[in-house]
């Protein structure tokens, strides 16, 4: 599997200076953390989940999260759990019948409700668990976090050598994190906890919808989550605690909940997509890579935005290659900026990691060339 594999060889060659690498759920954690990218949520109760996963691979689906939490009513839990077994059984049979399909399946995660449900699913799934890349932990805290990650650690310590590592992705979205008086203590406690399970933490995710609900807020498609001041301040602190280079965590951005309507007289579809593109751009500027999405139409815009521009790549590569003590600063090959090796080195390393997963565009290419012309010509 690789990003933009729906392109023909001719299209890939014309667009990419350096194309994306291939990967699967057995790839190294360092790259896999960046590869999560645009994660499409699907309610577990949806009858066509497995079929949709197969179908959407052709449209660029790379990561899917099967939801057992907020998208599921309290009276639907048992049915939703049984549905997970059906979906994974279908996908397992599909890979057996199509030997080349295993590497082509998306990264699959399940968002669980509680540590108890996680433990039960790990036990009940049996061999089907090897279809998964991991689990997503909602309302994550220092109190419930140990039980979540102990279940993951116990599985990994007893799994067969040939089985892939199972990862956890905590979502920071609860009241003690957003409320100012308790935020820093809670974030630091969570950071200390995650440090004990670092090998199994794939992403740290931000759940801004739950944060917003605590203030009765909901952003419009014209407004970025960074324009809601209580949420912005909390995201800033999350980045401060988990985004430090020495921590090594990849932070994934909040869900974009608008997918629009092409037929709306006020061009709502256009507003929703422009809002998504604007917010992902702000995510990137703040060091956030990854976005929870709720509609297939959001896949290509988010993924395209994670490609690396040729200028970024040349600067990053030059900085890393010049890190030998022979000089401290030099002019960019584009002759439009200075590159200071020590201050810009960590930025450069992150750019090179992203360039492997999402590729480097040719000098005259732009992310919009990866979008369907009929839908995004306005961007």
Automatic annotation (TrEMBL):
Keywords: Lyase, Magnesium, Metal-binding. The keyword Membrane does not apply. Its cofactor is Mg(2+). GO terms for molecular function: lyase activity. The keyword Repeat does not apply. This is HpcH/HpaI aldolase/citrate lyase family protein. It comes from Paenibacillus tianjinensis.
């Amino acid at each position: 599997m690789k990003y933009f594999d729906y392109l023909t060889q001719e299209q890939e060659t014309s667009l990419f200076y350096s194309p994306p690498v291939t990967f699967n759920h057995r790839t190294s954690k360092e790259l896999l953390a960046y590869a999560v990218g645009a994660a499409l949520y699907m309610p577990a109760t949806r009858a066509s989940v497995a079929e949709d996963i197969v179908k959407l691979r052709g449209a660029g689906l790379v990561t899917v999260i099967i939801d057992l939490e907020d998208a599921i009513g309290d009276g639907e839990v048992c049915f939703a759990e049984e549905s997970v077994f059906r979906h994974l059984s279908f996908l397992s049979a599909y890979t057996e019948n199509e030997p080349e399909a295993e590497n082509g399946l998306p990264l699959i995660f399940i968002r669980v409700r509680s540590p108890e449900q996680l433990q039960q699913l790990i036990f009940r799934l049996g061999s089907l668990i090897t279809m998964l890349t991991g689990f997503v932990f909602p309302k994550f805290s220092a109190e419930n976090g140990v039980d979540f990650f102990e279940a993951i650690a116990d599985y990994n310590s007893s799994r067969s050598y040939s089985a892939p590592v199972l990862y956890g992705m905590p979502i920071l979205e609860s009241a003690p994190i957003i409320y100012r008086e308790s935020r820093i203590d809670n974030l630091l406690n969570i950071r200390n906890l995650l440090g004990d399970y670092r090998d199994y933490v794939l992403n740290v995710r931000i759940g801004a919808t739950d944060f917003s609900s605590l203030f009765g807020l909901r952003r419009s498609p014209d407004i970025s989550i960074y324009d809601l001041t209580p949420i912005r301040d909390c995201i800033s602190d999350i980045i401060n605690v988990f985004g430090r280079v020495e921590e090594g965590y990849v932070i994934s951005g909040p869900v974009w909940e608008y997918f629009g309507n092409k037929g709306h007289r006020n061009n709502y579809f256009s507003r929703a997509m422009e809002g998504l593109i604007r917010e992902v751009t702000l995510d990137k500027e703040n060091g956030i890579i990854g976005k929870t999405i709720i509609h297939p139409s959001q896949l290509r815009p988010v993924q395209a935005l994670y490609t690396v521009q040729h200028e970024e790549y040349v600067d990053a590569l030059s900085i890393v290659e010049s890190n030998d003590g022979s000089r401290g600063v030099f002019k960019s090959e584009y002759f439009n900026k200075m590159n200071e090796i020590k201050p810009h080195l960590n930025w450069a390393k992150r750019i090179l990691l992203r360039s492997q997963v999402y590729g480097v565009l040719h000098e005259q290419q732009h992310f919009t060339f990866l979008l369907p012309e009929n839908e995004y010509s306005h961007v």
